[in-house]
Known about the structure:
Elements: H1 3-13, H2 15-94, H3 99-135
Helix pairs in contact: 1-2, 2-3
Amino acid sequence: MSSEFCVYLQAIYGVNSMRKTIMVAFAALLLTACQSKHEQLQKQISERKEALKEHQDSALTMSQADVERLDQELQKVSAQYEVLKWDAEEAHNKGTGTPELYERVTRLRLKRDSLQAQFDVACSKIKYIRRLQEDDLGERMPR
C-alpha cells in the first residue's frame, strides 16, 4: 500500500480501524488466492484423469493388437510343432530319427512355449487395464 493511502485511512478511521481494515483486506485477498489455486488444481486433476483415460485406451488397443498377432502366430507354430512331433515319433519308432530332427522339435516346442507366455502376458495386461477402467481408478497409473 502506498504511504499516502495509509495516511488517508488513519485520518478517516484511526490507527486501530486502519489495522482492522488492512487485516480484512489481507484476509479477503488470501481467500481469493486460495480459491483461485483450488480451481487451478481441480482443472489440472481433471486434465490428468483425461490423459490417463487416453493412455489406458491406447494401451488397451495396442495390447489387443498384440493378442491377435500372437494368437495367429501361436496357432501356426503349434500346428507345425504337432506335425513335426508326430514325424519325430514315427521316425523314432522306425529307428530312423536323427539328432537334427529332435533338435528341430525341441526348438519349435521352445518357440511355442515362448509365444504362449507372451500371449498370456498380453491377455493379463488387457484384463488389468479393463479392471482399472471399470474401477475408475484415476489415481493409479498402470505399470
